[in-house]
């Protein structure tokens, strides 16, 4: 029996002895055996308050030592996120999430909210010795309003959503990697194949279903809890657990897309090509590209990769020619394909089960900034090798356009600005097998970003925006949305979570 807290005060079904008798009569002996088994794990895990969950949600709690626990932990994409919680909850309905949140809020136990498990910041979606709410069973996808809207359970991945829309010739402003979770991606902004034309993914949400800290399940949209609707578009896990998202769909045929790999001798041409495509006069809203300067930590040391997408079925789109014309090419997978196939290809190229440090910054394009940063990057990449063998990629892409004035988000871009035309988002992601090297690689990354920010400052092109989904733990993306938005987030948190459960007990970027 768990004695961490007085269960009478938390069990939604009252007296636990009566509950036990009721359960004996009502459920099969096998299910009761499972509950008893969970209790023995409760004892083994030092009677954490969180273990009361096994009473309230029988069969939906896992503890260390069982296969479901191991599967859940090992399914986090990166090693640094695989800490060991006391137990996990696998809700199969928003009602289950509500029961769990009420108990966890009362118990004071730390907990985490996990969907696709792709966060790179340690502790963002896992909770060492706490409780994880593993939402992956909430993955129902439904078309609504004759296909104009798709609703997705918060445990779905983008491949599930694209897959459900594909045969109807529809798409959604989703991730470029099929395995990335709908939830974390959308709540942090979300950059898609379609972003240059349609903005951040969060701006295509028409409704969130969310469980608040008091366990209430509420609908959030432009007409219901409107202030929270704005805050959820960039405010990540600070207000509750989202259990369902509804997104606008759009008609979408094939895209022309893929990746071209170049030897490092092509770096100067890639730098020039990226700088050219970022001239406002060359902006093409159908073109989405990422230019990556990749360090392999072995010979050959560096490679260039251009991930190119054109959201119309136009082979050899003119605006992508600065990249497609670069020679020599080591490989080229450009072809006409559907969003789901391209997203699956992107995920097949992403390697899980490694440690990884991510960090990001934003700046305006200048004639020299890209080549300057590539040169700083080459030195940093080599110094990382002295710590451990790494593969690392410095990637440049565009900031998506801001939302319309009538449907704001909290990301900080004015509806009258056009960052998609001249601002650059840079991501540095470093991958390595030696988990013990994490702190050293993180420190080198921090030093590198100080040099990058210094270079951007010297050129007068620095922009104070930090994309949350790419940010390192030591970065401050919510604060960097600007003081007005930051204070707004704080006020909304106070209103919907007055005791600060999601500020104090849940990991991730806090207000
Ligand atoms: C291989 C790879 C490819 C990527 N590709 C892209 C890309 O194309 N574009 C892009 O913009 N980003 C991309 N990202 C970054 C990605 O958007 C973030 O890592 C994002 O946080 C992942 O969401 P998730 O649900 O998978 O992660 P999780 O680790 O499950 O969650 C991330 C954060 O969101 C919170 N959260 C999750 N679910 C909920 C919920 N239901 N309610 C409240 N809070 C919740 C968690 O608590 C956590 O803090 C990529 C990342 C990887 C590793």
UniProtKB/TrEMBL annotation:
Domain of life from the UniProt record: Eukaryota
PROSITE patterns xrefs: FAD_PCMH (PS51387)
Domain FAD-binding PCMH-type residue range list: 81-252
Claim: Oxidoreductase is one of the keywords in the record: yes
UniProt entry keywords in alphabetical sequence: FAD, Flavoprotein, Oxidoreductase
InterPro entries registered for this protein in UniProt: FAD-bd_PCMH, FAD-bd_PCMH-like_sf, FAD-bd_PCMH_sub2, FAD-linked_Oxidoreductase, Oxid_FAD_bind_N
One Pfam family it belongs to: FAD_binding_4
GO molecular function: FAD binding; oxidoreductase activity
Entry similarity comment: Belongs to the oxygen-dependent FAD-linked oxidoreductase family.
Name listed for the protein in its UniProt record: FAD-binding domain-containing protein
Lineage: Eukaryota, Fungi, Dikarya, Ascomycota, Pezizomycotina
